[in-house]
Each structure stands twice: as C-alpha cells, then as structure tokens.
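Crash report, auto-generated. Payload:
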Amino acid sequence: VRARRADALRNIKNVRVAAEDAFASDGVTVPVDEIARRAGVGVGTLYRHFPTKASLVEAVVVARSSKFLERAHELAEGPDAGSCLFALVQELVQLATDKKELSDELARAGIGQDKLRLPAKEELERVMGDLLRRAQDAGRVRRDLGTADLGRMIMGTCLAADHQGPQSTERLVAVMCDGLRAVNSPGLRAVAPA
Amino acid sequence: VRARRADALRNIKNVRVAAEDAFASDGVTVPVDEIARRAGVGVGTLYRHFPTKASLVEAVVVARSSKFLERAHELAEGPDAGSCLFALVQELVQLATDKKELSDELARAGIGQDKLRLPAKEELERVMGDLLRRAQDAGRVRRDLGTADLGRMIMGTCLAADHQGPQSTERLVAVMCDGLRAVNSPGLRAVAPA
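Recovered output after restart:
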C-alpha cells in the first residue's frame, strides 16, 4: 500500500511538472494526452488525479505559490532587508503576472470560470510586512507606507504590466522599487505648480 | 431664438454644476428634484436636457475632463517640465479616481451599465507624451520609459488607490513620482540576491 501511495504521489508530481512545462511552451490548450505523454503516465492515471484541465492549472499555480512562499521566508531572513524586499516585490509581480496569464488563458479557452487565487495570501502579507518594516528601520525604504499600501502597489503594477511582456513588467517594477527607495522623498508638495 | 438658446445653455450649465456639487456631497443617489432645486430650474427642464441620471453623471465627467484637458495643455507649456509632468500625473490620478467612484456608485445604484470613459484620451496621451519627453530631456525623469508605460502606471496607481481614500492615493502617487524621478536608477540588476 505504501509503495502504491508513493507511486501515486510521484505520478501527481510528474504530471504537475509536465503540465507546467507544457503550459509554458504551448499554452493551456495543450491536449491532456500530450501532458500525460510528457509525464510518462497513462491518460487514465492523469484524469484520476486531475479530472479537469482547470484542476491541473490550479495545481500548477498552487505548487508555484508554495515554492514562492518558501522563497519569501528565505528572503525575510536575509541580512540585507532592502535588497530582499525589492527581490520579493519583483518575484511576486512575476508570480502574479504568470498566474493572471494562466487564468486569462483558461477563461479564453472557456475552461475555467473562477479567477485563480494566490494561496497563503495572509502568510505572504505577514512575511512581506515584517520585511518592509525591517527595510524601513534600515533606512532602505521610505517610512510613509504600510503593508497594505505595498500590497496595493504590487497589485496595481501587476495590472499595469498585464500582457505587456517581461520587459515592460521589469520597467514598471523598477519604477516602483525606485519609488520605494526614495527615503528622502520631497513628497507631493514639491510637485504641483499652482 | 438666440436668447432662448442662451437660456438653455445657461440652464444646462447650472444643472451640471449643481449635479456635480450634489454628487460630491450626497452621492449619485441624490434625487433629481433636489438637483433641479439647487440649479434653480424646473424638473421638466432638467429632464429635457438630461433624460437619465446616468446622462447627468456623464455630463459631469465630460465637463471635468475637458477642464482637465485645458489644464494639461497649460502644464505642457510650463517652464519646468519635470514639475509640470508630476502635477499632471497627480491630477490625472485624481480625475480618474473621481470618475471611477462615480461610475461604481452608478453601478451600485443600478443606474448605469457601461463604464464611464475619460473623453479625449488620445489628445491627453499626446500632451502627456510631449511633456514626458521634455522632462526626460531636462534630466528630471528617467529615460527608460515611454508614454505607454506612463499611461499604464497611472492606470495601475488608480486601481491600487481605488476606494482607499485621498491620503492613500497621495502616498501611491508620491511613490510613483519618486520612481519616475530616479534618473540614475540602479535598475533591477541591483535588486535580487540570488
């Protein structure tokens, strides 16, 4: 029984990894047979674990998110809170953009109805909040922002970068991070000529 | 005939101004009679010019947008391109946020179906693009951004600031403007620890 269970877990993982690669190279409309072939399992086995294409996409997003959460904890422990926060922001925008693209592709293909959510949102916010405060205490990030502001800015940047490609995303993240770095911000009073 | 026409135009303007004030103080659900009373016109006159509440809200948005477009042209001529661009960004975020709130209120009240759009989008983009290039040439704004990036960032900031109140909006705009100011941006290469 234990050996069968280990087999099943290995199959699930192989399918998930094959699905992630296939979605990345061919999009979510890639046939399920092709994913099974790449994973080295039968289609019946694949369907037993993932009855719908949407459940397969969700598994990919969940796996990527837990990997990201590990990475976030790793960054939260890093010695240079500023650089770690900027890395977290950049990688989170990347994750959310990828997830959004999968979600949109699913919707276009008429496969999934609900929007995919990033799991462990609360835990991620907590880690991000701790890192933000450490970076602020270290004088690397402006002090006039809270975790909620940061979360909303990341969301706004994701929406702004949506479907514009990686270079545009990189530019927008750079502007945001440079804005966060502005510890001696002149603020908006210096902005508007009457 | 000319006098009657002038009367009609004055009535339209009075109603629009009264509607703008009433929406700002009491929200879009303010009764039409109340708007007519404040404008000093009969309800029949109001309905003749604005058959629906949605048409009244749209008139308010259009009027505010054309006022803003004048302001944008004024800023585009300003001597200090950097400050003028930052002012334009701040005021455009304000305009779009107000418009979005009116639009959402309409939807909640079950009055309007379509999203309100900001008119003269192309003209505004052109003015903004000219100002961006002038500010970049003056060394006040980073050079790695185009007009489309700027437009998307403004949109993202509006979405991030949505319904969070004026102070949150001000913080998010400040971060964005400081990010734009970073003419010697270290870029993202300096961001991510491996």
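Post-recovery validation: The helical segments of chain B are 2-26, 32-39, 43-49, 53-76, 81-108, 121-137, 147-161, 166-181.
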